[in-house]
Amino acid sequence: MYVAPFMALQCGKFRGECPWRRSHHLPIKMKILLTGAAGFIGMHTALRLLERGDEVVGVDNLNDYYDPTLKEARLARLQEHAGFTFHRLSIEDEAAVAKVMKSAGPQRVVHLAAQAGVRYSLTNPKAYIDANLQGTLSILEGCRHHAVEHLAYASSSSVYGGNKRLPFAESQSVDHPVSLYAATKKSNELMAHTYSHLFDLPTTGLRFFTVYGPWGRPDMALFLFAKAILDGRPIDVFNHGKMTRDFTYVDDIVEGVIRVLDKPATPASTFDPLDPDPSTSSAPYRVFNIGNSQPTPLMDYIGALEKELGMVAEKNFLPIQPGDVTATSSDTSALEEWVGFRPKTTVEDGVGRFVAWYREYYQQ
Fold first, then answer.
1. Which end of the chain is more exposed for a tag (fewer CB within 10 A), N or C?
2. What pLDDT digit, counting tens, does each position of 290-305 carry?
């Protein structure tokens, strides 16, 4: 069985041996509610929390946006841990979320559940309103009414939309989304700020940049490319390959999520309402990028995959798709200053780990 490399950049893998938590006076063990537990990033995050000794209350609806058997396989990995409990529900069901919050009594919440995918939002917009807006409202209300110490939630690099100034920094305007998915993610940040301001709820948004790695989503490029190449089919390469992405390995994303979770947002002493920085506030609210800060041309990404597979892809070059952008790049200096971490896994290493998992899982 493939086992992803364990990244203990700051916290040791043994229970209670986390210098970050000791230095910040955190309890050895916390109870954490995690939405999207059967998802790609959710499973990896839950495993890390469980391995360091936390108790994880997982929530997921196991919908069929992509193959539910992959979600069930991820969930099975979590259910091997005594500290994991699971509730199958949709986060837009506010009563169900409130019931779990009341019974579980989590100290902190990691909100990763969402309707993902830019292209799917073009044909199924209501799914994004239900999951990303109504669902996030349910989580915010649950945190508000059940004394949650800190909410860390997933945003997306998609919020930068039509911005052309690279690298993207949290201080930039994100007022020009180019997909409904991006608009809902920006809305989540605004909703979180409102709850931080009105109810003194510490919230931290994390703008993920093109996450990839073992157990990834089948609708993402690396997964689609690997499957097509191994099946002997051509791959679709949009914008004729003239695209650049800040591909970020999942272990780096998880490290950032957990470090941020461990350090609740606080009001920014330097916040100026006459010249407001959109990533900070006079309320306990923060927003951070989590990206590799090493933008990679799409053709180089494909090349790394071809090298690992030992096969050359037949390429079907196509125009750019609606809602897509040509380039992303992250400025992660704010994250590094806040928690002392910056992602660093190379595309070559990350793609190699993905291919090892893919061949093992699908026996190819």
1. N
2. 999 999 999 999 999 9
